[in-house]
Amino acid sequence: MAKFDKHIYPSVHKGIMRAALQLLALESHPAAERFSAADTEILISEAAAPDQLGDRHQGRGLHYYNAVRADGSALPLHPATGGYCNGKGAPAPSPLSVLDAEYRAALALRLAGKHAAAMKSLSRAVHMLADICCPPHCTSLTYFSLYGAAHKRYESRAAEIFWNCTPDALSEPDAAAEWAKQAAGKVPYPTYANLLSGSVPVSGKPWQPGRFAVICNALAESGAKHLDAVRGSDDAARIQSIRERLLLSITNAAALLAAFDRDLTEENPAIRRENHPYWLKSFNTAFVVSREPLYLHFADEGTVSLRTQDGRALAVGAFGRVLLTEPHTDLITQFRFGREPLLTLYPNGDQNRLLAQIRGQLHCIRRVSNMQGNLFLSQVSFALVNQPPEGAKYLY
Ligand SMILES: [Zn+2]
Ligand SMILES: [Zn+2]
User: Fold this and answer.
1) Of the ranges 74-83, 120-129, 193-202, which one carries the lowest mean pLDDT score?
2) How far apart are CA 93 and CA 85, in angstroms?
3) Which ligand sits closest to the CA of 95?
4) What is the CATH number of domain 2-271?
5) Which ligand is located closest to the Cα atom of residue 143?
């Protein structure tokens, strides 16, 4: 077993983040200036967090984005997301839904002045991108399948190759710098344009998959071609595959970091221009709690409120009961980013009086329409959905 132990080395996710940051600096890309020493520290330290036990993103099968089965036969795209499903065959949460959600969260948090939380979300987005680039993660070779050992073998070899040194003599910055040098000139910057486009329901128009789905699908489909290198006995082929995919992870991570800088620098950031309707639905019962659509409003101080078009705001009456208030009532409930659970409801900005908590992420919810059933763990109380569910009972 020790033979396949990737944990004798530092996390490759951390190495990929380090190399991507160094790569931006090496290419003198303007985005390199965006990330302070403190930002860099958070980006690197958070990069492996989604794999840790008890993490909100950790879970069997959720870090898979399978374009093919373990025998190489193609898997279908999910009709609503336009993306592949996770290791449990569900469209969300998946590396795609988490990437999309965390990237939007990072932009919203940064615009709200919440630097540390923004860096954590951005790092998590990069983690998901790197998982998709890793062939066992897009070819159904889950840890819990017959091919768990092949998965572990591939990743433990990847750790050896990435760090390229005995663990005790290792300099993480030096190892990452080597990869940054090799990756120079290969960053797919243009691929990461219009990241917030698509994956939004528009009435009377067919569903358009998001830009992230297009990117992730291409990465997963190219990863599927590495199935033999993962499963087979040809070690030279495996090493070649690992080198290619590590470089791909680093260059795509750098492109996402560069896109983050661009999406913050533009005149009227796209994350602010989004004005899509949501309905709040209680999750464990049949109640739908908002009859009319609600719109997200981002505020500078880091809150997000939900309001109807005629100005009514969402408020919480009692734990588990959500209702709409008329304009100008004194109880205004706001949604706040950045603390576990990420989405909380509290009255008039009083954070000590939490009235309800939504476990899971606002940003996850918004990306996956008609699939609220797949989004959350069982203890979840509410979900935002893109359409009012049929046959619902209203609380007001
Ligand atoms: Zn992972
Ligand atoms: Zn893995």
Assistant:
1) 193-202
2) 9
3) 1
4) 1.10.575.10
5) 2
